[in-house]
Amino acid sequence: MSKKITKICCIGAGYVGGPTMAVIAQKCPDVKVTVVDINEKRIAAWNDEDLGKLPVYEPGLDKVVEEARGRNLFFSTEVDKAIDEAEMIFISVNTPTKTYGKGKGMAADLKFIELCARQIARVAKDDKIVVEKSTLPVRTAQALKSILHNTGSSPAGKEGGVQFDILSNPEFLAEGTAVEDLHAPDRVLIGGDNPEAIQALVDVYAHWVPAANILTTNVWSSELSKLTANAFLAQRVSSINALSELCEKTGADVNEVARAIGTDSRIGPKFLKASVGFGGSCFQKDILNLVYIAKSYGLHEVADYWEQVILMNDHQKRRFADNIVTTLYNTVSGKKIAFLGWAFKKDTNDTRESAAIHVADYLLNEQAEIVVYDPKVTEEQIYADLDYLNTRDEKENRKLVTVVNDPYKATDEAHAIAVLTEWDEFRAYDWQRIYDLMLKPSFVFDGRAVLDREKLKNFGFEIYIIGVGSCG
Ligand code: UDX
Ligand code: UDX
Ligand code: ADP
């Protein structure tokens, strides 16, 4: 008989923890779900009466939160209390790439995970199931186990000690479609070695996920599957992006090529959209992680193979920016470039690793003036992203980059427009009006292949489309 879970705690109220727990609470009204975070501002935003102010923007999330919040979904900064109460604790804190020391720029920084483990060990007075939700390098469960079992007031294994079961339950939701993905996941993956603990978590998901879609494996397979899934998806994007450059040279259209190969059922149509480069908190980090692990086992060919996916992505961002400079008569110094989009993909306010950041940085090095419009990303976030790169001082970033909340203002008197995110609204703009506002010749660099090429050409734009080339 597996233990019936009545209280869940989730440490980390971010892009993964927030939406995932909101949906668990929505689908399991008999379970009390408390999401805790040390970031008071974030928790206050999750509790805001105004659902438009939730810290994570995801279509449909406001409805889910409205339904469950205050009923069986709670957001709090009282971490110890929530740990103490819960039978099951999800760890969903951030695991950024290390920026210092051993494994710098490659390995995942596990310090936040370790802090959580120590806190759980200190607070827990009864048995807990601890679930890894964050993306973690393979064998993190082992580290967690070791901390949980050897620290705390009544170490596990000792007489009277508490028992910790560790499960790996990677999240596969994609931002922008998080609620949809959580409601109808392709699969839920649970790795563990204690069948009772596994069953307890299966029972939570079984509230709404069909049994056939809940896969169970050992911990290591589960951890490695998460990295592998992201590596394969990113590899598809880099593969089509590599072809996008060849298409531009040969006169093929990458979108036609993608359609032609995507109909092969062995290849499939998804993740074949050429772009200015993939971003997001997972792809780069997870591949770097894979590369680091492979290297640490001396598997250099394996490491080099996957590293190439990142190198291709860096090249794609760079060549997009390069092409803007070349096309604008080899200089963008003092020229106004309007950025449409800053988020790493549409329907999210997340900007982590967004291609826009790197394209902007490159153009700023060429002394361009950039005006950004994104429907969901704040000015504060855009400056924070640029400052984080440390390429120039904060004052300079604010001098060279302006953020506006109106696309027509962004394009007014611009030399060029660069489309960095595939927001739907970009297609619906009054492009005649934009053409009239811009300096001539009016250049558009569509890094997402979303605009109507023929229509724009007819207005008089000089247009470049990723994977198609210039067709002004
Ligand atoms: C391939 C293409 O599939 C086909 O569409 C094209 O027209 C010609 O090239 P073919 O080479 O006949 O066809 O066989 P395929 O089934 O693709 O296998 C190619 C090789 O890959 C074989 O050696 C096969 O054993 C190997 N393979 C295939 C794997 O090792 N693992 C797999 O998952 C699939
Ligand atoms: C990804 C995985 O899809 C998800 O399963 C995992 O849980 C987290 O990482 P996410 O990063 O949120 O999700 O979004 P995703 O849709 O995968 O897009 C990642 C990046 O690739 C975006 O920048 C997107 O624009 C880009 N992309 C995606 C392309 O450029 N072309 C494509 O065809 C698909
Ligand atoms: P993800 O995309 O993985 O959800 P985020 O950065 O959006 O990543 O969210 C992670 C959250 O975890 C942040 O809000 C951060 O404040 C929180 N966090 C990190 N460490 C701890 C900790 N020790 N206790 C509680 N919350 C934490």
Describe this structure in words.
Helix content is 43%, strand content 13%. With 472 residues, it is of the alpha/beta class. The chain has two domains: 7-217, Rossmann fold (3-Layer(aba) Sandwich), CATH 3.40.50; 310-470, Rossmann fold (3-Layer(aba) Sandwich). A seven-stranded mixed sheet has the order 11-10-9-12-13-14-15, with helices on both faces. A six-stranded parallel sheet has the order 3-2-1-4-5-6, sandwiched between helices. A two-stranded parallel ribbon has the order 7-8. It is globular. The relative contact order is 0.09. The structure holds uridine-5'-diphosphate-xylopyranose (2 copies) and adenosine-5'-diphosphate. Adenosine-5'-diphosphate (ADP) is lined by residues 11-17, 36-39, 42, 79, 92-94, 112, 115-116, 134, 281.
Give the names of the bound compounds.
uridine-5'-diphosphate-xylopyranose, adenosine-5'-diphosphate
- Please tell me what the overall shape is: globular
* CATH class descriptor of the largest domain: Alpha Beta
Under the CATH scheme, which architecture of the largest domain would be assigned? 3-Layer(aba) Sandwich
Tally of distinct domains: 2
Helix content: 40-55%
CA-CA gap between termini: 68 Å
What is the averaged pLDDT score?
95
Tell me about the biggest sheet?
A: 7 strands, mixed
Estimate the strand proportion.
5-15%
Structural class: alpha/beta
Q: Could you give the order of strands across the largest sheet?
A: 11-10-9-12-13-14-15
Number of strands: 15
From the 3D structure, determine the CATH topology of the largest domain: Rossmann fold
Give Rg in angstroms. 24 Å
Structure annotation, total helices? 18
CATH homologous superfamily grouping of the largest domain: NAD(P)-binding Rossmann-like Domain
Which regions have little confidence, pLDDT < 50, spanning 5+ residues?
none
